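Archive transcription. Copying these from loose printouts into the bound notebook so they stop getting lost. Printout 1 of 2:
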Amino acid sequence: MFFNPTLNITILNNWNLGQGNWSATADSGSAQALAASAGLAASGLAGWVLPTGNGNLAAGAQNQYLSIWNDVGASFAGLNGQFDGVQSEFYWSDTEDLPNPFSMWYFNPSSGYLGSAFLYYGWHAVAVRPGDVAPIPEPQTYAMLLAGLGALMVAVRRRPR
């Protein structure tokens, strides 16, 4: 996971969550459902959503995709260098394209372009969550910590007094 302090969001490192249509109710198999379940599985926390994106707005909270794109050097190679599994096809945004009914904004990671399309397409999902999500240590980390403490205790006991 990657924390973006400017946007105050955590971005899931895996950008290959699968493909789904856009759904206002986050139906099973939708891009929103993919983002929510992948984020929950990776962090144990709920509240994961699709990033915002709107081709009419500058980078910032209402256009997180453009901010992420700019932060990695405005290139597909930069996205691939920062995140795993970035696909060259389109990613859904969580932003409705007003006033076009049944249209949502999408992000093209190959070019940084934000466009609008009907919500029925099956495009990719990536997950973001407000705030900093501290990574959960793996069991190996705890094992190394305990081994280190044990070695320290042995060294302290053997030290001459």
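Printout 2 of 2:
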Amino acid sequence: MTIATSFAGRAPFFYGWVILACACCAGFSRQGPAVATLSIFVDPMTSEFGWSRTALSGAVSIGGVLAAMAAPFIGPTLDSKGPRVVLCLAVLGTAAATALLSLTQSLIVFYLLFCFARMNFAGPYDLGIYGAVSNWFVARRAFAISTVSLVQMAGLVAMPLIAFFAMQAADWRGAWLAVGLTVLVVGFVPTWLFMIRRPEDVGLNPDGRGKAMDRGTDGVAEFVEPAFSRRQALATPSFWLLSLFTIFVFPVQAGVSLHQAPHLIERGLDPLVAATVVSGFSLIAAVVSFGLGFWPRRWPIRLALVASAVALGASAWAMIAISSEAGGYGSAVLFGIGIGGLMTMLPLAWANYFGRQSFGAIRGIALTVQVLAQAAGPVFSGLLRDLTGDYALSLTCFAVLGFGGALAVLFARPPSRPLRD
């Protein structure tokens, strides 16, 4: 029996809040190999080794493809062993890989280490964080997921700053060491010490409620959690509609995120304005993510996802003819609303629609679709930019994809109770 399991049952508060704190720490540490963190290293590493920026950024896409391949196999491990094993291995692997990047002497070494870190970022981290939160929270799941999303965005702000200041104090090699050490201390220690698989393992119920957690004061059931196996989930229209939604919107999310600043500069905006527009959408996304934590259970989740997709499509459409700072900030607001809704409500939909029983196995399949869609967006946008000379065509396509995603998810109602296999 671990210290955590002996304490959890006797704690004067619901132990799920400890689990949420652990998931937040893991989410913060996840940003070690984030694209924003890598961007701090692009100039010094390409200057020292003479690499092209295309060669350096290719590691991001390859890491995503590796995560897509691994996710279906990691999901069942999450269901059987719990998030502690998955997250601890992800944190240790990421900490080691990012720290060892300080020893980089060749492009192949960089690829081996950074691709491994990105695979952890896109696969095990995502499954472990949302699996832990979904296991411990049902009625309060929206609030828990929104809190994790907020902390992950805080990590996305902090990790590049940690790298930047470490680089000022030493060099880029010292900065990678600082990133690796931060990942290890923030992510590993609390997860290893305090993470527990499910509340039932220590005699508790999700949300800290009693045995009648699924019944209202009048004795009528308020919410009975579904319990789908992966096979049962794959047989529902809801699974495929959510997957289609994912295919539509994640190229928009990734493609616009990477190419937004260069497009604004090409449209005549000052580089400083372009940078603040990017920061602005991140801030809006953080606020929206947290606000959606209070989404009422009686309101369909798909409505929030429809609004998110519409906001993403509208932001892409608005960016096409931007010619002023006001237009840039307006598109950032729309994009931030879309990103914030996507980050919070899509994980919530997967958990609420199909339950905790096989969350990892089901989410593992969905995550493969998501990661591949994300990898396609930047490549698609960059290719069309090179062919046409500007981003107008790619943004038009992204607008169509966003609105198409809204239409697909509009029909993604919660599935009926699963039949026996």
